[in-house]
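>> Question from a student workshop board

For tomorrow's exercise we were told to take the sequence and the ligand below, predict the bound structure, and bring the output to class. My setup keeps failing. Could a helper post the expected result so I can at least see what it should look like? The ligand is NAP.
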Amino acid sequence: MATLHSYVCGAFSTARGEEVALLDPATEETVATANCGGFDAEAALQHAREVGGRALRALSFAQRGELLARMAAAIHDHRDALIETSVRNGGTTRGGAKFDVDGAAGTLSAYAELGRRLGDARELGDGETVMIGRGAKLAGRHAWVAREGVALFINAFNFPAWGFAEKAATALLAGMPIINKPATATAWTAVRLAEILIEAAILPAGAFQQLLGPVKELLERLGPQDVVAFTGSSRTGVLVRSVPELLRHGVRVNVEADSLNAAVVGPDLDPDGAAWQTLLRDLVREISEKTGQKCTATRRVIVPQALLERLTAELADRLGGLKIGHPAHRDVEVGPLATRQQMEDVQRGCARMRAAAQVAFGRERPDALIDVPAGKGFFAGPMLFVARDERAVAAAHQDEIFGPVATVIPFDGGVEAAAALVRRGGGMLVSTVYSDDRAWSAGAARAMAPWVGRLCLVDSRSDGATLPPGMVLPDLVHGGPGRAGGGEELGGLRGVHHYMARTAFQGPRALVERLLEA
Ligand code: NAP
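>> Workshop helper replied:
Here is what the output should look like for this input. Compare the format with yours to find the bug.
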């Protein structure tokens, strides 16, 4: 059985830490052991800053982009191995694992292409030169320059490959060395990915390290040039944000956290039309894919009262057709949750909903599991609730249930009523409006926009050309306000800026304009 180690200062760590068993969540068998902690945090930071940072900053954007292209190719070449660990240790179906692994390679490729377009530069101009004062001599200009610190990534359990790659693509392109701390429960895929990158000898020494186990000591040693990119629960996000040393040194912290994403149905939507079919397709996918353990999963379906019964019945019918069981089995569409803790959290959330709302479909522990030993596995749902009164609506907005669980909430069909419900989510990563009435869509989009990081619009004409809202795209910003953490990632060049410093240069026009060309 594999024993997994941190990769620190150019070698897999032999220091003894705490041994943590990693499980197959469908059978509860141990599949690997993680050696957590025991690494020298100070040495890791120094190696990144002194060796990795220097090497990366010496490269142009095009050269860094070339590194990303080679990382994408290495992941693609070892796709099957990564999918296998993801199925065995993450409980993901092959489809769910591909979503993670191909998403990782695709994101790195997109940023490789951006690097190629940025060419030989190592800094980026920002806006036009502005003239200062009355004369024609004094000018100002903004530019993005490389930071001299290290980028620490703390990742959630649900996307061990993509969650790492979307952060790595932007930080490495910006010229920052990275230290990745994957979630322990699903660390096998993250370690396999690290081995692939190290074997391929793509990155300069010090540009990449990976730590298993707690990173408290490392967080406490971060300084003014460093960046933390955190993805996980709001609760942990608050703990990370409030580390005193991060506050004291003004360390940049980006948080991606919980999200009560919404699907909003316009009152005009024809239940026999094309957009209705897209709505059902998206809902089934965004409730069940990766067993609902996606930050972008749909948690609330906001539907006009007149369409409530029909939508609930059709959605329940489709959810009822999903095959649940061991994710390695060919027929299985929904696997287990990743850990016992996840399962217990989902059960608690469903019990809270049961006490307040009507159950339209599902059971906390589904029966007829395919290829699963009797009584084993961390299985849950899918479950669909209907919130018919204020008590149920309030319960649906209390906490994110991180599993295949959604709540249908009726409204009167007006834009304001829909937007008011959306706002109760407290800020989300993604939401979708389904309507063929352009004026209604535009009104809803305008009212919802300040609360949503990415807003998808679907009508009957877009059928066939729409992407599921849960698909995060490298060219569009991923992040959301409020409960979703208030962070931003990706979005093309915007994502690279998080790992750079913006400086305003002021001085004689001739000098300022040519400063970064020297
Ligand atoms: P989590 O329990 O908050 O853990 C996230 C990461 O933080 C893990 O690597 C964990 O390490 C680490 N961690 C735990 N305690 C810490 C501490 N005191 N200081 C520093 N790091 C600490 O979240 P999760 O269960 O892995 O992920 C599920 C959550 O992530 C959901 O709430 C979901 O909404 C959110 N999520 C958000 C996004 C997004 O883009 N917005 C994407 C994916 C997931 P250990 O595993 O070693 O404990």
